[in-house]
Amino acid sequence: FGAMTVRENLLMGAYKKNSKHLVKENLEYVYDLFPDLKEKSREKAAALSGGQQQMVAIARGLMANPDLLILDEPSIGLSPIMTQSVLDVIKKINNNGTSILIAEQNVVQVLKIAHRGYVLEQGRTVLSGSAKELLNNDNVRKAYLGM
């Protein structure tokens, strides 16, 4: 929500009835994960860089204390450095107990932090396994990873 401040965006994410009492705690948690957002909490989201906007979107999702966070192309349009930063935080979120489902074309980077992977073709699962198995599978490496 570009016209809203970073803080307003985050508060929009705390919509679940059982999460209202945790707003302050959740704000501290997301500000700890994304220190840049705390510094920019009064700025309009539209004024942020693409990476910072992605951080706002992820942080907004975390404000509702989800058991599962679904991310669609979290690295799209980001520089390699920002992509790595976002993926590091996603791994941290997962390590803190939130399950993560990522749909992503940056397959190599995501498989490096994932537990499992699924290869889809035309909406069908054609291969699945541990992330390590998929990274080491010669057919997957040639067909999907360009290696």
What is the typical, i.e. mean, pLDDT? 90
Distance between the termini: 38 Å
How many strand units?
A: 4
Count every helix, treating DSSP H or I runs of 4 or more residues as helices: 8
Low-confidence stretches: none
Largest sheet entry: 2 strands, parallel
Name the shape in a single word: elongated
Element pattern in H and E: HHHHEHEHEEHH
Structural class: alpha+beta
| Percentage of residues in strands | 15-25%
Percent helix, as a range, is 40-55%
Strand order of the largest sheet: 1-2
Oligomeric status: single chain
Computed Rg: 17 Å
What features would you describe in this structure?
With 147 residues, the protein is an alpha+beta fold. The chain is 49% helix and 16% strand. It has helices at 6-13, 23-33, 35-39, 50-62, 80-95, 107-113, 131-136, 138-143; strands spanning 68-72, 99-103, 116-121, 124-130. Strands 1-2 form a two-stranded parallel ribbon. The chain has a two-stranded antiparallel sheet with strand order 3-4. A hairpin with a 2-residue loop joins strand 3 (116-121) and strand 4. Helix 1 (6-13) runs parallel beside helix 4. It is elongated, with a radius of gyration of 17 Å. The N and C termini lie far apart (38 Å).
Keywords:
single chain, alpha+beta, 16% strand, 147 residues, 4 strands, elongated, two-stranded antiparallel ribbon, two-stranded parallel ribbon
Secondary-structure map:
Blueprint: H1 6-13, H2 23-33, H3 35-39, H4 50-62, E1 68-72, H5 80-95, E2 99-103, H6 107-113, E3 116-121, E4 124-130, H7 131-136, H8 138-143
Parallel strand pairs: 1-2
Antiparallel strand pairs: 3-4
